[in-house]
């Protein structure tokens, strides 16, 4: 290949949306993936696009992401469905936080509706009545199928924007060249471009390991599971619960958050970073999770590959307190791994033409589309007029 403008290393949601925004501006893009297809955090999540749960900077990126997802969906089916998100409070403290977030999001002109207990149970009759105190509904938020979206998005880019996509192509070196940058693959092929962008997710050992392994990157391990199809059950949209209210960034900025207590029955769940989410897939099955265990990037192997049945049982026991359908009817379980950092994201310019972006944490599916648009503006300012 000749005359490449941008090489993007990593075809997860972060790398692919950077490729998308660059290609829309007429850039000749090479997207490189070390595996046969993306198999890490981008496909091992709920497929919830929920800006409502993010802190202020990321809330803005999330709102823009909603627009981008909808725009592409009009042209090409990414599995995007606008069926909203609902946060379900289980006690008075969580209900107070929902009221405070409602006031803030309304002031930001972000559509939302408070639901009483009666209204919540009428809208979601499969919830356990004893769990529900009230709810906050965001009608504009989206659901996608995480095991399908990224593959469809890549096909869309290659078909519409002529993005070149290489798989089974680990990049083992990245280096400056005259007027640009180059990469070397494990099979010794080399490619050059004006710029290289490395979106490496939780992979920290192939490229610039001294930088990444000595940064504050942390790898998080999440346990999730999926039930058998239950087409007779209807629980549409993104379902977030009391533990989500106690965990998500948007609520930490609420006035009453500092006085939030921890009920005894939440103590063991919080120890394992558990908060309960549900998302019904197109086949009627439910994704349920999740938990969080952490290790520095240099010690990521400490998290191991095993699924802890004890953690899954904690998740399912709490889930059964929330919904009436048989959550124990599990067909598969898995662990996902993503990188995060105290700075919210790691953005590092190796030089003017080699850039690293990783460590977005659990915000990727919700905010990458909008974030990558602004990131390309920073990395390729010459493409924008004043």
Task: Break the fold down into its secondary structure elements and pairings.
Blueprint: E1 4-9, H1 13-24, E2 29-32, E3 48-49, H2 56-75, E4 85-89, H3 92-107, E5 113-116, H4 117-123, E6 134-138, E7 142-143, H5 149-160, E8 164-166, E9 171-177, E10 180-185, E11 190-198, H6 209-213, E12 218-227, E13 238-240, H7 242-245, H8 249-252, H9 267-271, E14 277-280, E15 286-289, E16 293-296, H10 309-322, E17 330-340, E18 346-349, E19 354-358, H11 364-379
Keywords: Flavoprotein, Oxidoreductase
Family: Belongs to the DadA oxidoreductase family.
Organism: Nibrella saemangeumensis
Structure write-up:
It is built from eleven helices and 19 strands. The two termini are 32 Å apart. The relative contact order is 0.21. The mean pLDDT is 95. Strands 4, 5, 6, 12, 13, 14, 15, 16 and 17 form a nine-stranded mixed sheet that branches. Strands 1, 2, 8, 9, 10, 11, 18 and 19 form an eight-stranded mixed sheet that branches. 30% of the residues lie in helices and 25% in strands. Strand 10 (180-185) and strand 11 form a beta hairpin. With 386 residues, it is of the alpha+beta class. It has helices at residues 13-24, 56-75, 92-107, 117-123, 149-160, 209-213, 242-245, 249-252, 267-271, 309-322, 364-379; strands at residues 4-9, 29-32, 48-49, 85-89, 113-116, 134-138, 142-143, 164-166, 171-177, 180-185, 190-198, 218-227, 238-240, 277-280, 286-289, 293-296, 330-340, 346-349, 354-358. Helix 1 (13-24) runs parallel beside helix 5, helix 1 crosses helix 11 (364-379) and helix 2 (56-75) packs across helix 11 (364-379). The radius of gyration is 21 Å and the shape is globular. Pfam families: DAO. Its cofactor is FAD. InterPro entries: FAD-dep_OxRdtase, FAD-dependent_OxRdtase_HpnW, FAD/NAD-bd_sf. Belongs to the DadA oxidoreductase family. This is TIGR03364 family FAD-dependent oxidoreductase.
